[in-house]
């Protein structure tokens, strides 16, 4: 893909995504609330720039990465960051193998090594959940060198030309820490907002075609009210999560709407005042 002429690629990306967005939704894919966002991110991928997706929980960052993987027909290796993430989790580990009566040591390649060698996408989820001292091992992978000296084997790995890095962060969440400048500066950063309006309606009707237009419209109104209260500082960001909204819509096909919202959205909030506010907003739209 990286040998394509960029202008031609740019036109092709825009045309194909517009034509195939319904298919992408059915595959669990991503639709951008900003017309240029999808195209601009793909251009960054073509230019071999590490991509950082920044946005609230449930805004579709993982779905966006999966859609890029589907678009380029490029497998994706994933790292889920936490305080327990270490070099072995990223690069791999040595293990003892018994074969034909003999034992020998083999190295089991981790997601970073596999992605670099095979030209896969490396998706690093919640990168700011990892301990700051864990990630510098990736600095040479993320800059112009695109290489890594594996500390466990001594092997020098030069990335396949199609190797792509996409990372995601939820800013300001418990357990996260600011990315250090050396790491952040290696990425091109895109803010990923929540879906709204027509895009969200398109996703809801594609994923849950048996939902009535009235039910979809009610959920859209509820989501708008939740977003307003998030902006007003009265609700946590997760209250307006599109992921949670879609979970609620799925439940609402089999139970009353109020219970569906309770299980999928309200009960995820730790503050009782916030839970009560969510349900008060719901009541205004339930006839």
UniProtKB/TrEMBL annotation:
It holds the Pfam family AAA_5. InterPro entries: AAA+_ATPase, ATPase_dyneun-rel_AAA, CbbQ/NirQ/NorQ/GpvN, ClpA/B, P-loop_NTPase. Residues 47-198 form the AAA+ ATPase domain. It comes from the Bacteria. Belongs to the CbbQ/NirQ/NorQ/GpvN family. This is MoxR family ATPase.
